[in-house]
Structures are given as C-alpha cells and as structure tokens.
Amino acid sequence: MYMTFRAHIFRNISQLAKVKIMKIGGKWEELKIPSSIRSIICLNLPSFSGGFNPWGTPGTRKKQDRDLTAPYVDDGLIEVVGFRDAWHGLVLLAPNGHGTRLAQAHRIRFEFHKGAADHTFMRVDGEPWKQPLPSNDETVVVEISHLRQVTMLANGHCKSKSVEEPATPSSHGHENDDSDSLEDEDEWKEGRKKFGAADTFKLPDEVDIAHLS
Predict the structure, then answer these.
(1) Could you tell me which of 99, 118, 92 has the C-alpha nearest to residue 39?
(2) DSSP symbols for 26-49
(3) Structure confidence by residue, pLDDT tens digits, 126-141
(4) C-alpha 48: how far from chain center
(5) Residue 22 DSSP SS3
(6) Model confidence over 144-156: pLDDT tens digits?
(7) Percent helix / strand / coil, the chain, rounded to 5
(8) Closest CA to 171 of 181, 156, 157
C-alpha cells in the first residue's frame, strides 16, 4: 500500500495541511514538515512507482540517531517520505538514493484546512484523484493506519521483507549504510548538480516536455 499527495509547485505542505503521527501505543503528535517539502509519500513496502524504494535502508548512524528502521511490511509502521520537487525524485535513480525521511509511524493524519489552495492531488495504490480542500472553516481529514495483513504471493527475489527475517531489505542485498547526505538543503543542491541540473536550467520554449521520451 502507498499513498501520495502533493502541493502546488509554489506551495509547501504546511500551507495546506497539519500533519500528525502516532507511534505504536502512543498519542497523536504534530509532525513538522520542512518548508521545502512539496510532496509526501506514505508506504509500507519498499517498492514504489516501478520498483523504486523512496525510504531506502537507513544506515547505522541514522538507526541510532533517529531510531529509524528498514521498511519491513509487517512491523506495524508506515514510512513517511518527502520530496522537494521532480529533481529531488531523481535521487531514486542513484545507488542508495532515497527521499527525505520524515517519520515512521503506526498512524498518520492529514488535516487539510482553508488556506493557499482549493484542491490538492492524491494517489492511492496507483489511483489518482483531485481532492477538494475546504473553502470555509471546515477541516478535511485523511487518516492512514497500519491495520491488518493479507496473504500475498511473492517470489524469492521480492524486495519486501518481514521483520522476522534476518536479511535486511536493500536493493543490493546488503545494508545501505548511508549518511542521508541529500537530506540537507546545501548538500541537496550539490547533489542536484550531479544530475546536470544547474540552478539556471530551463527547457527551451519550443520544446514540449510531453513529447520527450
């Protein structure tokens, strides 16, 4: 299962919604979203949009400093990942690339309020829709919780792993001992240049991006 929603290119998530999370056996607490984040993915499996792993596998330091774990499908946790823009999404093409890890939680709630936009775009398990947002003092609430499990068929090379299995899920069969180097704004800009995305990059007016393959 995965769910995504994004803000307008010139808006950030905090202008549209208040995000709250609940740990296992805990209480609701507000999740602070960096102002640069414009889209959020919530998922409980290490495969998204053609097999990419937005959460990745946190290295030893991140496990200790932020109490993060690998994305197991049966640990009762939902991984919450943020992205700044389309260029940020390109990090998934790089070895050990991942989005900005925001939280791991048993439940997550989005409380949309009247604000900077009248709608947002959402997608659940590949099905997109345009979600109207409040035009008055009402609140639109979207809540996701890790509830039950269903039996699934999987082959021996399946990326999804159980918390009961000794092997840590990763794209190359070993722990991704990363440093979250692309999660800091300055280092993200440097990483962006590695993909050839200069700050002044712009497609020519005569180029229709819809026709690019």
Answers:
(1) 99
(2) --EEEPPPPTT--EEEEESSS-BT
(3) 788 888 888 888 889 9
(4) 10
(5) strand
(6) 987 766 666 667 6
(7) 15, 25, 60
(8) 157
Q: Which residue has the tokens 């299995």?
A: 165
H-helix or E-strand spanning residue 120:
strand 119-124
- Higher-scoring residue by pLDDT: 5, 166: 5
Q: By mean pLDDT, which of 37-51, 88-102, 141-155, 182-196 is the weakest?
A: 182-196
Length of the chain in residues, anyone? 213
C-alpha dist (Å) from residue 178 to 124, 134, 168: 29, 40, 14
- 148-172: buried (b, 16+ CB within 10 Å) or exposed (e) per residue? eeeeeeeeeeeeebeeeeeebbbbe
Strands 119-124 and 78-83: unpaired
Residues 26/67, Cβ–Cβ less than 8 Å = no
Distance separating alpha carbons of residues 169 and 48, to the nearest angstrom = 14
Q: Is 199 exposed, middle or buried (0-12, 13-18, 19+ CB in 10 A)?
A: exposed
> 131 has which bridge partners?
120
